[in-house]
Amino acid sequence: MAEEVPVRLEGLTKRFGGTTALDGVSLSIGAGEVFGYLGPNGAGKTTTIRLLMGMLRPTAGRAQVFGLDGWDRAVEVHRLVGYVPGEPVLYDRLTGHQHVRYFSRLRGRDDAARAAALAGRLELDLARPAKALSRGNRQKLAVVLALMSEPRLLILDEPTSGLDPLVQQVFQTLLREHTGRGGTVLFSSHVLGEVQRVADRIGVVRRGRLIAVERLQELSAKSLHRVRATFTDDVSAADFGGIAGVRDLAVNDHTLTCSAPQTSLDALLKRVSSRSVDDFECAEAELEETFLTYYGTGADHAG
């Protein structure tokens, strides 16, 4: 099993009656990797995770965790995975400590010390019953229960929902510690900003289809730059046309504005510098803007 990749999807498809929730998704996630699985709400992210966890049976294709089929060998898969669902289900009358003891017994382990350490870092009081916890603290408890057994794979469905920014920073550190020990993370989200700080690669799913897989550094290389140049003399948009990658080109009252990826800047600057320039500005856009430019989901985008 040690040689098996942590996550492998092959032609994974799920239909509910006449509705196709997931359509032929193929993907592999390597050891020590944080993979951000991105897309608007309803795109198929949670369906993918439930197929991996054996909660749903594929209509076609396969979902494997360390070479184990998620449906046929779900019990074995669960022993290897720490899972945070999109809507954590807790036992309202049990305290955090009682949750820890219960799930430790299910795994045949004693994870109390590890759970206490995690709770301390997340500022979670394990002595309180779940029904008395806020949404954010319920999410923290779900994270503690997923991480405390030091699983080989973390599968996290919108795990930072309800967490404040400071706690999110601690959470991101925990993920990096996990991968530093050789663990792997599949992290679902509809917001690029919350995964770009920890993800090595991202996959973009839309309407059940995987439309892109990118390394974060490759997406950064495509980063858009907002360019604004003011000229002494009259210029027209036609003077700057034909440069590959340049978007939203406009000229108004001696001023040019456009967006351009890094790869287009040299050609654009040469064209600009051939004119008499009064002022020039070039600023890199946020990565989320670049992401939406290439993979934007229009009206159904939820981030």
Q: What keyword list fits this structure?
A:
30% strand, 30% helix, alpha/beta, 303 residues, 6-stranded mixed β-sheet, Rossmann fold, Alpha-Beta Plaits
Q: Span from first to last CA?
A: 37 Å
Q: Which stretches are poorly predicted, pLDDT < 50 over at least 5 residues?
A: 297-303
Query: Could you tell me the strand content as a percent range?
Result: 25-35%
Structural class: alpha/beta
Radius of gyration: 23 Å
Quantity of strands, as a count? 14
Instruction: Please tell me the CATH architecture of the largest domain by its name.
Output: 3-Layer(aba) Sandwich
Provide an overview of this structure.
With 303 residues, the protein is of the alpha/beta class. The protein has nine helices and 14 strands. It has two domains: 213 residues, Rossmann fold (3-Layer(aba) Sandwich); 61 residues, Alpha-Beta Plaits (2-Layer Sandwich). Strands 6-7-8-3-9-10 form a six-stranded mixed sheet, with helices on both faces. A four-stranded antiparallel sheet has the order 2-1-4-5, with helices on one face. The chain has a four-stranded antiparallel sheet with strand order 12-13-11-14. α4 packs antiparallel against α5.
Helices and strands in order:
Elements (H helix, E strand, L loop, with lengths): L6 E10 L2 E11 L4 E5 L6 H8 L7 E6 L2 E2 L4 H7 E4 L11 H12 L4 H11 L12 H13 L5 E5 L7 H16 L3 E6 L11 E6 L2 E7 H6 L2 E8 L15 E6 L2 E7 L3 H9 L3 E8 L2 H9 L8
Parallel strand pairs: 3-8, 3-9, 6-7, 7-8
Antiparallel strand pairs: 1-2, 1-4, 4-5, 9-10, 11-13, 11-14, 12-13
